[in-house]
Amino acid sequence: MSDALFASTPAPPYFAVIFTSRHTGSKADEYQATGQRMIELAGHVDGFLGLETTRGENGLGITVSYWRDEDSIQAWYANLEHKSAQHRGREQWYRDYRVRVARVERDYGYLSDRAAKKD
Amino acid sequence: MSDALFASTPAPPYFAVIFTSRHTGSKADEYQATGQRMIELAGHVDGFLGLETTRGENGLGITVSYWRDEDSIQAWYANLEHKSAQHRGREQWYRDYRVRVARVERDYGYLSDRAAKKD
Fold first, then answer.
1. Which are the contacts of A58, defined by CB distance < 8 A and separation ≥ 6?
2. How far, rounded to the nearest angstrom, does the alpha carbon of residue A5 sit from its chain's CA centroid?
3. Comparing C-alpha atoms, which of B75, B65, B52 is closest to residue B101?
4. Chain B residues lying within 8 Å of A99, measured CB to CB
5. What is the ipTM of this complex?
6. Are B21 and B35 spatial neighbours (Cβ–Cβ below 8 Å)?
7. Is the pLDDT of residue B42 over 80?
8. Closest CA to B95 of B8, B18, B4, B25
9. How far apart are the first and last CA of chain B?
10. pLDDT band at B2 (very low <50, low <70, confident <90, very high)
11. Nearest residue to A33 via CA among A88, A77, A78, A79
């Protein structure tokens, strides 16, 4: 695992899953623990490239995970423990959510050394 | 303008610009005002479909803007006031940033009435 805020993605093309959500506020501790576990689990899926996640004071959370191809995304969504977490998410944690699967065509930017450092 | 947290995007395909950033902490008020102005300005660009933005306590900000096509993204990046803001962003506000342009292939989710309501 890395504690970097930014994902170190390869040259495009690759895929992004944009997950936008707003919480009910219910069972926050359980949500937090499950979120950490999902990040750990995703890291073991072949084709996982990295993840960027944040939640602001406005209650909106945005998590973008990056993937080599559609097959790796399918493998992640077929994972049984992930399926169970998705179910709990829909039932308990998310008032609203949206998932968008997108193909990254180009990227650019500037990262200082620390931001992209892997542990 | 809408104060909805979620963007009301049409059926795919459409485009997403994923902007991930970390602040220097410098000139926060000026940054805030410019950010608001940019959201207002983007709303006037033909092909703009909406925006989702949040910044967490970890300092990471993620803003995803949605666009009809590559041409509308190009028009937005060619806007002179936006160009000037981008320049100030690189010079003053962002320690790190990354821009990814992606084609949304599919989306799904659940939005309660309020989340997607336009004002």
1. B5, B54
2. 12
3. B65
4. 107-109
5. 0.90
6. no
7. yes
8. B25
9. 7
10. very low
11. A88
Scan for tokens 């890291």, then name that residue.
A43
pLDDT in tens, A23-65: 888 888 898 899 999 999 999 999 999 999 999 988 899 999 9
- Give the Cα separation of B108 and B111 in Å (integer): 10
How far is B21 from A94, CA to CA, in rounded Å? 25
Token pair 């002179």 is found at: B80
Q: Say if B113 is an interface residue toward chain A (CB within 8 Å).
A: no
Closest residue to B110, CB basis, from A54, A96, A112: A96
Interchain contact, B95 vs A115, CB within 8 Å: yes
Please give the C-alpha separations between residue B33 and each of A74, B52, B87, in angstroms, as whole numbers: 41, 17, 15
